[in-house]
Specification:
CATH class of the largest domain: Alpha Beta
CATH topology of the largest domain: Rossmann fold
Oligomer: single chain
Strand content: 15-25%
Strand order of the largest sheet: 3-2-1-4-5-6-7
Order of helices and strands: EHEHEHHHEHEHHEHEEHEHEHEHEHEHHH
Distance between the termini: 9 Å
Largest sheet: 7 strands, parallel
């Protein structure tokens, strides 16, 4: 197949979950297909040359389309008055659409593939077989943000939640193949035929994320894009509710917050016991230099890549019921799950004071990720559905 891949962001560097998923799916699909990549770029700081070099081995053609701030503003205004989700308005503009159309006419692909509903408007009405990777259930993720938002922001989030839910359902029949990252996300999807959506989980690069011997500098680590609202919420949860309980028993425990573009609220949490890194050239060092990984997610959707990476590096992991619902690890055997700050704190204390239990949990989590999460196997499911659609 010749597959035209349309992405809302350039999938490199791999500091965000959607970029990581897109990059690895392209890498796997390229083994038996021709890939024509078209990625929108709203960030002038992204190194296009570095991205081109990273993607070139897998793509027949690579095309980056810049979208400017004035175009974004105009798109947001149009989306507001049309009743479309603001996320669609942010990424869609007519100038970019002309370039997308020209590339499709030039390359004549067999299959169109767009990642996230953010790019659906560009191709949803094309008379060519189409695949959409919803990835997460965006509408419900927005609803969860609304539930914890301030009085001022709550109406805005609720408006976007309603628009996203309508749009997710409206574009459903426009696509021949629909994929999503987990069963919990599919179960929340606002369409009566949601069972038609294929579950295509993420994988983990086990050759890259492998156990490493390293001096331990930190007791706990949490990683991710630190401007992403669910991660910001988790950092505040750790700093304000979980760690104060831990420090009553273990006053010297140090927490490492590792990830790009930390939000001001994340930076505000930094002190002598909570270290905020900012961008790291190699995120593996954060895992390797820490004893325990914790992801106390309370909002958001989808599968947490950070958990896969940490467990693949044989770190004992702690998370919330929300995050483990998508992950599917066995509580108390392959992962520890805490429903509130007290339970999270007790799990931390247990793993930092009982090395035998920490080692046993780390090994079980390592075995679990290596057995279940593989990019090749996951992408095969989507590729097979694409071929049937043709």
């Amino acid at each position: 197949m010749k597959i035209f891949v349309l992405l809302p962001r350039i999938p490199f560097p791999l500091e965000k979950g959607d970029k990581l998923r897109a990059f690895n799916q392209i890498k796997q699909l390229a083994k038996g297909n021709e890939i024509v990549l078209c990625a929108l770029n709203d960030d002038p700081k992204v190194g296009e040359q570095d991205a081109f070099r990273a993607l070139q081995p897998y793509c027949q053609s690579i095309n980056f389309i810049k979208i400017s701030k004035p175009q974004i503003l105009l798109g947001l205004i149009r989306a507001f008055f049309k009743g479309l989700p603001m996320q669609c308005g942010y990424f869609y503009n007519r100038k970019a659409a002309k370039k997308v159309n020209a590339l499709i006419a030039k390359h004549k692909p067999d299959m169109l593939f767009c990642q996230l509903l953010r790019t659906a408007e560009y191709i949803r009405h094309k008379d060519i077989p189409k695949t959409i990777d919803y990835q997460d259930i965006f509408s419900y993720g927005m609803k969860r943000r609304a539930d914890v938002a301030s009085f001022v922001m709550r109406p805005i989030y609720n408006m976007e939640y309603r628009r996203l839910a309508r749009y997710e359902a409206a574009i459903f029949d426009d696509f021949d193949v629909k994929t999503i990252i987990s069963e919990p996300d599919r179960a929340l999807f606002p369409h009566e035929h949601r069972d038609e959506i294929l579950i295509v989980p993420n994988g983990v690069d086990h050759e890259k994320y492998h156990p490493m011997d390293c001096e331990k500098k930190y007791d706990l680590v949490f990683t991710g894009n630190m401007s992403y609202a669910p991660n910001v919420n988790s950092v505040e949860y750790l700093a304000n509710e979980i760690l104060p309980i831990v420090w009553k028993t273990l006053p010297d425990v140090k927490m490492y917050i590792a990830g790009a573009t930390p939000d001001p609220r994340v930076k505000k949490c930094a002190n002598e016991k909570i270290i905020v890194s900012g961008w790291l050239d190699d995120i593996r060092t954060a895992y390797a230099e820490s004893r325990v990984f914790i992801a106390p997610m309370r909002i958001g959707t989808g599968l947490q890549n950070k958990l896969l990476e940490a467990m693949s590096m044989r770190l004992p992991a702690i998370t919330s019921p929300l995050a483990n619902a998508s992950l599917g690890a066995k509580p108390n055997e392959e992962i520890l799950v805490g429903s509130n700050a007290e339970e999270m704190a007790q799990h931390i204390i247990t793993l930092l004071t009982d090395k035998e239990q920490a080692d046993r949990l780390a090994q079980a989590g390592f075995d679990f990720t290596n057995r279940v999460y593989d990019w090749g196997k996951a992408t095969e499911v989507m590729e097979e559905a694409m071929r049937k659609a043709l």
